[in-house]
Design a protein that fits this description.
Layout lengths: L1 H6 L1 H12 L3 E5 L7 H18 L5 E4 L3 H9 L10 E4 L12 H12 L2 E2 L10 H7 L3 H11 L3 E4 L2 E2 H7 L4 H9 L4 E3 L2 E3 L5 E4 L7 H6 L2 E5 L6 H8 L6 E5 H8 L1
Parallel strand pairs: 1-11, 2-3, 2-5, 3-4, 5-10, 10-11
Antiparallel strand pairs: 6-7, 7-8, 8-9
The structure holds 6-O-phosphono-beta-D-fructofuranose.
Amino acid sequence: LFMRQVSGLDMLEHQLKEQLQIEHVIVVSGDSDEAEEVKTELGKAAVTYLKQVLKQQSTIAVTGGSTMAAVADAMTPLNQNMECLFVPARGGLGEQVENQANTICVEMAKKAKGSYRLLYVPDPLSEESYHSIIEEPSVREVLHYIRHADIVIHGIGDALTMAERRKTPADEMKKIKNGNAVGEAFGYYFDKNGNMVHKVRTVGLQMEDVKQAERVIAVAGGKSKADAIQSYFNQGYSNVLITDEAAAMELLR
Ligand code: F6P
């Protein structure tokens, strides 16, 4: 407690909550761009928060990325009577296996002693396959859980970093660049005002579903993500941010 007061994290949380106009902000000390341990701390903070807000039989949709992998790493068993269900928010989105939502979802569910359902769908999809795949009974069932998730927990990334990491095809890359995309979350790219400039075509959570979820928790840190975080919150899609000191300071500059 003493450490927190001295480091002024409480103040950063308060100021950021005002600036972003959201319900809750948690700031951990350090910069996850510089030190891997800070990402571990983000993960732990996210788990602590998640456990406070989970209700019995909650459905939790999770995205991919290394920050969400840190959340899964930090997960600990939930009470036996919780019966929570974990689902991947959207497909693999071109991430490496360890950073894919399916992988993270299984690990999180196992550590939480909850259950999980996965999406086995290639991704990204052509327009044609997209429409036939979402009609498959097995896919439809999982999609139903995803679209009615009570809690969404997701990462945010810098738009160009993510587009490159996903080996985005040239035509889409052009759209992202021409649209001056700054931030990215669950396959949606946003410009600095939070307008959506591109969307990866994949099965799973759509923006309308995100808006309907009871609680949407973004976990993203590192000084380099400040603009991305601000762009995403400019449209107010999420109500909680768990971040680090370096991102917080940069956001408040
Ligand atoms: O690709 C999944 C995803 O959650 C993106 O939506 C997000 O931009 C990115 O991962 C964050 O990744 P990381 O936590 O590794 O920075």
